[in-house]
Design a protein that fits this description.
Layout lengths: L36 E8 L6 E6 L15 E6 L4 E8 L2 E4 L10 E7 L5 E4 L2 E2 L6 E11 L2 E10 L8 E13 L6 E6 L2 E6 L6 E7 L4 E4 L8 E10 L8 E11 L1 H14 L17 E3 L7 E8 L1 E9 L20 E2 L5 H9 L2 E6 L8 E2 L3 E5 L20
Parallel strand pairs: 1-19, 21-23
Antiparallel strand pairs: 1-2, 2-5, 3-4, 3-6, 4-5, 6-7, 6-8, 7-18, 9-10, 10-16, 11-14, 11-15, 11-17, 12-13, 17-20, 22-24
Amino acid sequence: MNFKKLFKIFLLPAAFIVVHSCVEPYDFETQTFEDALVVEAMITDEIKFQEINLSRTYRLEEDFPSAESFADVLVTDDRGNEFYFYEMAPGKYISHVEFGAQSQRQYQLFIQTQDGGSYSSDPTELLPGSEIEDLFATRVVFQGEDGIALLVDNENMNEASDYSLYEYEETYKIVSPIVVRNTIAFEGDSWQVVPNTKQETICFSTDPSKEIIISSTSDLNDNNLDSFLVRFIKKDDPVLSHRYSLLVKKYSLTGEAYSYYSTLKKISGSESLLSQNQPGFVNGNLFSVNNEDEKVIGFFTLSDVSTKRVFFSYYDFFEFSEPRPMFQENCMIFRPGQEIITPLDMIQTGSVRYVGMAGPPLEGEAGEGPMRVVATECVDCTFYGTNETPDFWEE
């Protein structure tokens, strides 16, 4: 889970200048700033190369956090096992060996930064989680909007944790509305029409979830949670236009971890950075070994993981009379300029694609130039994704 964008506001309760006018735009700047280590560390029960991310808090006027590089990162358990991590990319640390957290063991995270800072987590245990029994899609009206709800049913396990964190990865098929058989090839000052050999009609795009999705069954008589909403997609969202797949991962949480993520969710859902609900600092289970007053942001989490994937197509839920939503809002073929140089320049810049040489004008056709063209995104689906089919894809 990536919550780096939240961390620019955690330590800045006094970071805002008073707004004297709600009419004139104002560029907010940090007035006070406390530099702190940010740790994203979720170790799962999956046997894999585990990942831990380290960065620093950043100012309001900055767009990205700075990576915490050249740190020593170690995870230990209460049986003396040690799992070392190496820096694969700036701030991204990967375990040297594949391993998974095991139940009835306690794990602890240790971090030594390049500037001599020493940090640790509280000892943490893995709580078993309930399995995702089913993941399904259904058409609903949600908060006044027509669309598709992605829901999960969780299997009842009395010994399972009452708290869960969900993340998803959506993959959707993109089909170009216009197919061109030929294209323009340039060589120096010359050009010629050649066959189009690029596969640019069918593509796929994969996007991770960006929100914090958590559930609690602590107030229920049993640990059964049915029809829990993970994702809602409005009817006019173009990701639905052809075929869609959602992969859901469910992570078990301790009560302390749930409280931490719940606070993050409240912050991320705040309508304004100037909200009175800004907490200033979110307490986790990480601390500085050499300075008890130093703040550390993050939570060292151990999670049992359950996964499920679902596929569906647009007409599984919508009538043929209901038009598909499309990424391309305007795919009008037109004839720009008066001379051949105008469309050729546009083709070279990549803004349009060649459709054909212009013959007699067509009714309602825009322009009077010698060549017909159309916006590139109407032809080339790689504008939105990749033309490589995912290994898991099912038609």
